[in-house]
Amino acid sequence: MTDNIKLADYLFTRLVQLGVGSIFGVPGDYNLRLLDYVVPAGLHWVGNCNELNAAYAADGYSRINGLSALITTFGVGELSAANGIAGAYAERSPVVHIVGTPPRPLQDSRALMHHTFADGEYGRFAAMSTHITVAQTKLVDAQTAPDKIDWILQQALIHSRPVYLELPDDMPGVLVSSANLKTPLSVPKIPSPAHEPQVLSRILERVYSAKQPVILVDGESRALGILDQLDTLIKATNWPTFVPVFGKGLVNESYDNVYGLYAAGFGDELAKKYFESADLILTFGPHYSDTNTYFWTTVPKDALAITFKDSTIQIESETYRDISPASVLSQLLQSLDSSQIINPTGPPKQVVTTDDINDTDIIAQKNFFRLVNPIFGEGDIILTETGTAAYGGRTFKLPPKARLFGAITWLSIGFMLPCTLGAALAKREQNAATGASNQTTLIIGDGSLQMTAQEISVMIKEKLNILIIIINNEGYTIERVIHGRKEKYNDVPFWRHTQALSYFGADEEHVKENTWTAKTCGELQEILRNDRVHSGQGVRILEVMMDREDVQEGPLLYMLNKQKAEEAAAAGN
Amino acid sequence: MTDNIKLADYLFTRLVQLGVGSIFGVPGDYNLRLLDYVVPAGLHWVGNCNELNAAYAADGYSRINGLSALITTFGVGELSAANGIAGAYAERSPVVHIVGTPPRPLQDSRALMHHTFADGEYGRFAAMSTHITVAQTKLVDAQTAPDKIDWILQQALIHSRPVYLELPDDMPGVLVSSANLKTPLSVPKIPSPAHEPQVLSRILERVYSAKQPVILVDGESRALGILDQLDTLIKATNWPTFVPVFGKGLVNESYDNVYGLYAAGFGDELAKKYFESADLILTFGPHYSDTNTYFWTTVPKDALAITFKDSTIQIESETYRDISPASVLSQLLQSLDSSQIINPTGPPKQVVTTDDINDTDIIAQKNFFRLVNPIFGEGDIILTETGTAAYGGRTFKLPPKARLFGAITWLSIGFMLPCTLGAALAKREQNAATGASNQTTLIIGDGSLQMTAQEISVMIKEKLNILIIIINNEGYTIERVIHGRKEKYNDVPFWRHTQALSYFGADEEHVKENTWTAKTCGELQEILRNDRVHSGQGVRILEVMMDREDVQEGPLLYMLNKQKAEEAAAAGN
User: Fold this and answer.
1) B382 and B330, same structural domain?
2) Which GO-annotated molecular functions does the record name (chains A, B) (predicted)?
């Protein structure tokens, strides 16, 4: 390693060191010189159809890989990506957003360049980024650039949220010191505070005295980096384990003591009874948005909970700050004496069958997800777009190591399709070392699909093994349920979904054998038995026709019935 | 008119009073209750495929109609629209961005709702909007809402830029005073300053003494509301009149003294010679970005210019502030004594013919635009997307009242396709009163098209008469020209463009008769003679195949040749 290195090489070397294999984005005249360094650095360049799609894809990649990078151009590119970056912030996905900006001489002279408001102001888009990224920096000189890069990458990892990096177009080739590169970047540890032993002993005391304990694994556990430890805890205790929506896919549902989703009053009655009479709820990575908690009905009471979150542990109403959840959990696992803990009998598990479904039945929400579930294999990724797909996805029983992406908090429709591209690519890169192969399945409504459909062409270009199941119910059914169930504003334009693969450039031979439509449960079951559906190559499309107002039991049906009752009352008056 | 009115009705009544006929946007759970009022108010709801497309469409509508409105939902929706709003700011298009936000009780209690970062913070997206809109307001009580609405609509009109209006989901039905509605909203006039007579006499003095005068009409003249006056001035003086890129389509190119684009060293040599030896350049609505001025080579020297811009008039190096350009121009027209002004002989006009083109020629940039030009009719709208299309569009000779949209400053690729939807819709609404009919033609490269292609389905749904000409040169040719002409990052995925109409839902019969591909000039000419191409119904698609590195003479060819020379030099070393 020489003493000096070009700035772009420094940045990309760091990304490679941190396990990034692909970069997402769109070329633009202020980032082209940076793009020259991507492939030589050993990185794969994914040219997306637009920047929002690129940001969504980077988010998906990051959720599987642990870090991702996105390159856009100043103004036009970065602002198109804003919603995707915000979603990564809301749901804790570390995305390094690298923005190619005008060369320093133009910025310094306040030149009235394109991609600005022609007023000499170059700071406004960076100012906007402060609201949706956890750290921001601008590389403007050789001396400070390496440390700034290291710092911003650490911020992304520490907070598990997106960061914003401005890189003027005349900087990629500038020489910087390569000295830092000899030391791999690591995330600084939280020092053990004096009260750590006390926290541990309080936890152990509660653990040993618990008569009806529960483990609750929420989605921010991923950001805390404690998933392996949690797996050990779940096995060691054998305690009934539940997940909120965000936690689904982070624990092994094949264990007898793992129940999957806890939905309080919107789920299994016996699970609710057990949960609500628990005397200890070990809670990890909580994320208490309305949509992740069934309007906060699944949030444990303070008195019952011990909650591990970012650099704090809360025991009953007391919050211990500046403490590492990972460190305390690690000590807990080391200290745990299995003979002192209870081996409780959890609630009976719900058994899902499809015996009641007839071949001639139309495909309804209540039977569709049960029929699809068996095609998922170990390590697969399943993505369920906001709307009826996400509600249905909550009921899946997941194979070991399968990941599920659902609707958590940001709920930006259209997200899941490019997210699928990113997640599938990250998984393929992970599998390259082992030779394993996995399927990625996206279930998405027709309304959401229209937001970002063009990214199917990038999936095809990347030769990814992706099954896209399109729920065709002629519009935004989830919005119909919330309000305006008969209003035209909840309709979407008519598309011929079975032509997508051909339009988006797949081989004509492939198209013929990898596009299906199902109207009845019998048709669906026959299609699902096809090898090309459940374990095929390339991108496949399965369109399933459903009723415009068909929703599963739970919050959606509750809202729909409420709306109908209000209409009836109004009509009666 | 009653004394009270529901807030949403107040807002939409004001928009209707100001000539808005359609609203763009996407439904979301925080704006559904607002959407209930759109159609009853006499407005047409255009449900777009996504919010960026909706913002682009609203911008296009506004450029034809003078004002437009866009409705998105909190966070996810509004951020997706950000780039489109910023473009409207940069290029002076008044768009009222109405954001449906969570109900006041949820905001006041800092509830951890979806579409937030689940941290109780509700202000960050509004804070972001301050950088890309000219005014912002939040409707939170009945007492202040009507005045806030009036104020923000006036700001949009005064500045001809976008504004941001937050409307909580529990506000649309709140009763507010309707008293204001009796008085139509008007834009406050700039009071005549004491120095106005002096300014006028200085201008007249220069006008009467000019020996080689020029009129230069730039694009911000539209925002100044002086287009009709300029038409009078151009006819009254008969002076040679030029436009920068942004001004193209704002003056009547059928007049003998109107020359179209002035491109300095990148255009006609004799025009440059005349322009550079002028002793007076009456300049209106200047917009001096690099891309609108051929790197500032078309900007008149201070000593020669009298420049009319927002509330200032500049004469030589002296700037008079707080003065109305429209008022001064109006007085100038009234005072002007035609017998005292020179009737100069302008440079000879360039004659464009197609005689040198053979049927077997491949379609090259240098012949394509000449061949297409004759299909445009009076009052038509022609949109040329950033890239080779926009450069070619600058050479069109436009029929009277035709409008041309080109690449000015924001240059966000993908913009022109949804913009076409908005512009065509506004034109159709204008024509409804007269029974006139017009065509809208979009010329767009395949790279740009992929950004926003799904909006073709909304054009189809809206039954608009739009011809889309797709330049298929396998990627981002304009980026290839700037840098990396052989790099893969400037390629795009392969699409079958002739399948677009079918995929996006047009009638199968229509599809067959309204999709064409041309590879040679002969094929192109034959297709262009087809009635369905130049004056057909509905959306039609014409794909033209061009070479990956084919660009017109001018800045693009200059950059390409420079790149090739650098490569050759590098290879020689």
Assistant:
1) no
2) magnesium ion binding; pyruvate decarboxylase activity; thiamine pyrophosphate binding
Look at residue B178 and tell me if it is in a domain.
Answer: yes
The Cα–Cα gap between B455 and B429 comes to 19
A333 with A403, same domain: the answer is no
User: B-contacting residues of A 371-430, CB under 8 Å?
Assistant: 409-414
Per residue in A403-428, pLDDT (tens digit) is: 999 999 999 999 999 999 999 999 99
Shared domain for A250 and A139, answered yes or no, is: no
Amino acid at B106: L
Residue type, B268: D
Backbone angles phi, psi at B467, to 5 degrees: -105, 120
Mark whether B128 and B223 lie in a shared domain. no
Answer whether B320 touches A (CB < 8 Å): no
Tokens 């449900």 belong to which residue?
B47
Considering just the CA atoms, what is the radius of gyration of chain B in Å? Answer: 25
pLDDT tens-digit readout, A48-103 = 999 999 999 999 999 999 999 999 999 999 999 999 999 999 999 999 999 999 99
CA distance B44 to chain A (A): 10
Distance from CA of B537 to the nearest CA of A (A): 18
Same domain, B373 and B485: yes
Please give the residue range of the domain that contains residue B281.
196-340
Q: Which of A340, A355, A388 is the last residue of a domain?
A: A340
Could you give the number of structural domains in chain B?
3
For residue A68, what are its two tokens?
A: 């991702």
Same domain for B128 and B170, yes or no, is yes
Do residues A319 and A380 share a domain?
no
Give the residue among B253, B38, B287 at the shortest CA–CA distance from B160. B287
Shortest CA gap A516–chain B (Å): 15
Residues B426, B429, B435, B439: is their CA dihedral positive or negative? positive
Best A121, A128, A539 member to test B by mutation, with max B CBs in 10 Å, is A128
A114 & A204 share domain = no
In contact, A543 and A534? CB cutoff 8 Å: no
> Is B37 part of a structural domain of the chain?
yes
Residue B247 in marked binding region: no
> Would you call B35 an interface residue with chain A, using a CB distance cutoff of 8 Å?
yes
Per-residue pLDDT tens, chain A, 573 aa: give them: 459 999 999 999 999 999 999 999 999 999 999 999 999 999 999 999 999 999 999 999 999 999 999 999 999 999 999 999 999 999 999 999 999 999 999 999 999 999 999 999 999 999 999 999 999 999 999 999 999 999 999 999 999 999 999 999 999 999 999 999 999 999 999 999 999 999 999 999 999 999 999 999 999 999 999 999 999 999 999 999 999 999 999 999 999 999 999 999 999 999 999 999 999 999 999 999 999 999 999 999 999 999 999 999 999 999 999 999 999 999 999 999 999 999 999 999 988 999 999 999 999 999 999 999 999 999 999 999 999 999 999 999 999 999 999 999 999 999 999 999 999 999 999 999 999 999 999 999 999 999 999 999 999 999 999 999 999 999 889 889 999 999 999 999 999 999 999 999 999 999 999 999 999 999 999 999 999 999 999 999 999 999 999 998 888 999 999 999 999 998 886
User: Does the ipTM exceed 0.95?
Assistant: yes
Q: Largest alpha-carbon pair distance within chain A?
A: 83
Does A289 contact B at CB distance below 8 Å? Answer: yes
From chain A, the residues in CB contact with B492 under 8 A are 47, 49
Can you count the helices (H) and strands (E) in chain B? 23, 21
Q: For residue B416, what are its two tokens?
A: 């022109």
* Set of chain A residues whose Cβ sits within 8 Å of the Cβ of B28: 479
Within A364-456, strands assigned E span 381-384, 403-405, 440-445
Residue B484 lies in a domain: yes
List the 90-119 stretch of B: residues with Cβ below 8 A of A.
Answer: 90, 111-118
Single pTM value for the model: 0.97
> What is the enclosing helix (H) or strand (E) of B319?
strand B318-321
A446 marked ligand binding residue: yes
